């Protein structure tokens, strides 16, 4: 008896070639449903409609087609269990050797700007996942394919061995379960986003699921011995999955990590043109100015040594003067919301420089996830918007309006520096950045040493409170005039007293921004 294949696909890529090869080269009979049956029939391939095979018509507008014992009996029957074979014979059910199924285009549907909930619900496949799960469960006895890229390998198995190997069927079963799991996760994510458009602590529920679709296999991870892959998450393409790469080499794991760090900083600044340069996930220079050219120049000059090989993010389109400036040093990546044609031609002279266009620099993740042994840590994203009107001035000396604006700039940058974090700034430009030291005074000394004589008249931001007054005294000795910090230490009064004694102004935000 000829082998039986069930073909029912939404993505019809290469399905005609597969079906024709199955019939003409390997003597398969084919049953199919809906649009797939029509496609095969129009191509001149002999096919039996599922409704004809089961003797039951499609009902409910096509919602019920393959949910039938003659289909699922043929998929789930075990060839080495006598009772299963008896049941097949008694019910005139043929065993199915191949199931080729992929699912309704749910993701593509919800990606449309005008999609309604009713539209989305109609693209939730029921019969397809049921067949995929059944076929994947019974992989010792049949093969399941859910991706057109699997077709050639399947045909090669038949040509070499006459049938598929146990190992191949198991691999395909895994792909089937991954496909249905990802599909269900997309549906759950979409409905969750409708139910909870903004996350709060109450939305971090008992069960947390994460799923991703492969965007790109990367050359390696942080180091050459670590394999890595870039996955896109969520029901719609967002963030870096929507970026357009104008030129340059393929993005690496470290590029993407640094690009996201750069995006998070630049998203803090919307009122004026701003630029930031990232090295090893930390800003070595960040600046605001009247033009994007001046902002980049100032950010670069803040630490030109560290800027070499850096990642640049701009919150305004790349114009011609800025493009020329960008080509003067070696950079790994540049990202901006747009780039004019003349600027593109200039940047193209640096062929290896990765230039990306990301129109939406502001939209970031709603939560952060870190893996630990045996589990995940999930928290809502630190997307608090700084509001200096809510800050408390705790010293006798009050910051001037100009100092308050400078403190706000430094605070926004400090939020994205690894703890313990200290940022020194003047004229909306970072002069020194103290990163990730084991104590705050160590970070302060690094930032002040980097700022040098520029620290005189500058401001200082700290991501955490001061447990002692040593940071205040060190800052004052270098000429710092104003400090912003969260407050909350049992010994806050020591720092306030020292600031008063030394003539500094100090404000407390009431918000901490540790970043580990």
Low-confidence runs (pLDDT<50, min 5 residues)? none
Structural class: alpha/beta
CATH structural fold name of the largest domain = Rossmann fold
Helical fraction:
25-40%
In terms of DSSP E residues, the strand content is 15-25%
Q: Count every helix, treating DSSP H or I runs of 4 or more residues as helices.
A: 19
Please name the CATH architecture of the largest domain.
3-Layer(aba) Sandwich
| Radius of gyration, whole Å | 30 Å
| CATH-level-4 superfamily name of the largest domain | Methylglyoxal synthase-like domain
The oligomeric status of these chains comes to: single chain
Instruction: Report the average pLDDT across residues.
Output: 90
Distance between the termini: 64 Å
List the strand order in the largest sheet.
Answer: 8-13-12-11-9-10
How many beta-strand elements?
A: 21
CATH class of the largest domain: Alpha Beta
Number of domains: 3
Shape: elongated
Main beta-sheet strand count, sense and barrel state:
6 strands, mixed
Keywords: Hydrolase, Multifunctional enzyme, Purine biosynthesis, Transferase
Protein name: Bifunctional purine biosynthesis protein PurH
Pfam families: AICARFT_IMPCHas, MGS
GO molecular function: IMP cyclohydrolase activity; phosphoribosylaminoimidazolecarboxamide formyltransferase activity
Topology:
Elements: E1 4-8, H1 15-26, E2 29-32, H2 34-42, E3 48-49, H3 50-54, H4 69-76, H5 82-90, E4 98-101, H6 106-110, H7 117-122, H8 127-137, E5 143-145, H9 151-161, H10 166-195, E6 213-218, E7 228-232, E8 244-247, H11 253-266, E9 274-279, E10 282-288, H12 292-302, H13 304-307, E11 310-314, H14 320-326, E12 331-336, H15 341-347, E13 354-357, E14 367-372, E15 375-380, E16 392-393, H16 401-414, E17 422-426, E18 429-434, H17 440-451, E19 459-462, H18 470-477, E20 482-485, H19 492-502, E21 505-508
Parallel strand pairs: 1-2, 1-4, 2-3, 4-5, 11-12, 12-13, 19-20, 20-21
Antiparallel strand pairs: 6-7, 8-13, 9-10, 9-11, 14-15, 16-21, 17-18, 17-19
Helix pairs in contact: 1-9, 4-8, 8-10, 12-14, 14-15, 17-18, 18-19
